[in-house]
Amino acid sequence: MPVLVNQDECISCEACISVCPTGSLFMNDSNKAECDVDICIDCNACIPTCPVMAIDEI
Questions:
Q1: Average pLDDT in the 2-14 region?
Q2: Whose CB among 1, 32, 44, 47 lies 3.0–4.6 Å from 10's, allowing a Cys bridge?
Q3: Average pLDDT for residues 18-47, to the nearest whole number?
Q4: What is the 8-class DSSP label of residue 42?
């Protein structure tokens, strides 16, 4: 399943972006990580990378 980044918990560290093999994670206009679910391949590499656990499967 694709992932959802909790915008209130995201600390804008970009750790998730650096491990995403498809580039589906990006920084949005609010400088928070966001996932393009059309590109996400459900590898979930970003979930354990987030230091504040702001990423969950949807």
A1: 98
A2: 32
A3: 97
A4: S
CATH at 23: 3.30.70.20
In the chain, the N- to C-terminal Cα span, in Å, equals: 6
Backbone φ and ψ of 17, nearest 5°: -65, -40
Strands (E), 1-58: 3-5, 25-27, 33-35, 55-57
Instruction: Count how many domains the chain has.
Output: 1
Long-range contacts of 11-18 (CB under 8 A, 24+ apart): 11/51, 11/52, 11/54, 13/51, 15/46, 15/49, 15/50, 15/51, 16/46, 16/49, 16/50, 16/55, 18/49
